[in-house]
Design a protein that fits this description.
It is built from 13 helices and 20 strands. The chain is of the alpha+beta class. Helix 1 runs parallel beside helix 4, helix 8 packs antiparallel against helix 9 and helix 11 packs across helix 12.
């Protein structure tokens, strides 16, 4: 006899969302979380497409009790330019929604609490040692303590651990070396912000070597990070003439060479070293199969430039829960459920993959920072960045994104917009900031 209807590995946004939905429908659900909540996590800017789901799940009252910043748009700029291009989501091709930035420790813990309240069993500090069986209506896992759990279906929301992906040997890094990135980040206070509703605008500052994020999380705290190629830190020249600096000093090195970032952080206080997250980007295909569905980062991990993480996690969890509920009720067949889920995830993430690849071309940056174009192609890009690709991107969005990409290719040869000189951190002399001086001294 099965212990549960569904075993869910991981209780982050994907796992807790699936647990919440399935438990509310009366299914026996257990989520196995290796960490103890609340715990720190990156990915703090939530896309507008996610906010209606928060409301549909009845989570808005719980969210409003947590410190956060309302998010109505975003800003992008070059590292050597004094101003940025800003837009609000209601300027998108599709109707937008306000959303929010928040510390993930608080947000994830809220989702877990709500899932427990709905009747899901959630075990923290419980790791999965191995998968014993993985078949339709018959799955089993062994925990780190040796206990075996049985269920009818398994949902993997284990994030970058990709437990099912590794078990099936289907985890693959992308062939494109430009998408193999590393992020260096920390939280600061007293970071300069824009006034009014633009206070919550996530800011992306671009350079040839990578890009920065600046995301206000609440009244005091701002998340700051730098994303670059995973091997970049090894190639940075030091004062001694050698190559390579410590990983925990890369954010400081980059900020000291970026005028736009120095302005934002000139009065900031925070750590002199940074945290590190590597191993972008991969996929684990197929996203569903005999007895399993892969959710969020356990299915694929995208470059974080457009803040897709939480939205992809919660939207994929909603669709997976819908398919599993139909399977448990005998309302669909396993092959059909897997096929529909794969189509759902592939169709939505395909748009993001394309935008991410284009983002790293200077021509895309020139066109996007121009702020306007024919046939409302910029509105299409804004809507895609807002996450308006679920359950699938509409035709009006898709053809405009194709057109924007066509303009991008032309712009590499013929200037369609005013040219912007590429900005290189390596060519910029450093100017140390007080909070960074200790780390720079050791680099």
């Amino acid at each position: 006899m099965n212990d549960y209807d569904v075993i869910i590995i991981g209780a982050g946004p994907a796992g807790s969302t699936a647990s919440l939905i399935l438990a509310r429908q009366g299914f026996r659900v257990i989520a196995l979380e290796k960490s103890k909540f609340p715990r720190f996590h990156i990915g703090e800017s939530i896309l507008p497409r996610n906010f209606p789901l928060i409301q549909e799940l009845g989570l808005e009252p719980a969210l409003e009790k947590l410190p956060h910043l309302k998010k109505y748009g975003a800003e992008f700029g070059m590292g050597n330019e004094p101003d940025t291009t800003r837009f609000t989501f209601d300027h998108g091709l599709l109707p937008g929604s306000r959303t929010f930035n928040i510390e993930r420790a608080l947000f994830d813990n809220m989702l877990m609490t709500e899932a427990r309240a709905a009747g899901a069993e959630i075990r923290e500090e419980t790791g999965v040692k191995q998968i014993l069986r993985l078949a339709d209506r018959d799955v089993a896992v062994q925990l780190d303590d040796g206990q075996t759990l049985n269920a009818r279906y398994l949902l993997d929301s284990s994030g970058q651990s990709t437990i099912v992906g590794r078990h099936l040997n289907i985890r693959r890094k992308l062939d494109d070396p430009n998408l193999q990135k590393c992020a260096y980040f920390e939280h600061f206070e007293k970071v300069q912000r824009r006034p009014g509703i633009e206070e919550g605008f996530p800011c992306i500052i671009m350079a040839e070597e990578g890009w920065f994020w600046v995301i206000g999380l609440n009244e005091k705290t701002t998340s700051v990070g730098f994303v670059c190629h995973r091997d970049f830190a090894k190639t940075i020249p030091t004062d001694s003439g050698q190559l390579g600096i410590p990983a925990n000093g890369v954010l400081q090195w980059a900020v000291s060479r970026c005028p736009a970032m120095r302005r934002r952080l000139r009065d900031a206080t925070g750590p002199a070293t940074n945290q590190v997250l590597a191993d972008f980007s991969y996929t684990c295909k197929p996203y569903a199969g005999d007895g399993y569905f892969l959710l969020g980062d356990a299915a694929c991990f995208l470059d974080p430039v457009f803040s897709t993480g939480v939205t992809l996690a919660m939207m994929s969890a909603t669709e997976a829960a819908r398919q599993v509920a139909a399977l448990l009720r005998g309302q669909t067949k396993p092959g059909r459920a897997a096929k529909e889920y794969i189509r759902y995830l592939t169709g939505s993430t395909g748009i993001f993959w394309s935008l991410i690849r284009n983002f790293y071309t200077h021509s895309f940056r020139e066109l996007f920072l121009n702020g306007q174009g024919p046939q409302n192609v910029h509105g299409a890009v804004i809507s895609a960045l807002a996450g308006q690709v679920f359950p699938k991107p509409v035709w009006a969005l898709r053809w405009r994104l194709v057109l924007f990409n066509f303009y991008r290719r032309i712009n590499t040869r013929v200037a369609l917009v005013p040219r912007r000189k590429p900005f290189s951190l390596l060519k910029e002399p450093p100017q140390e900031l007080p909070q960074f001086t200790p780390a720079l001294a050791t680099a």
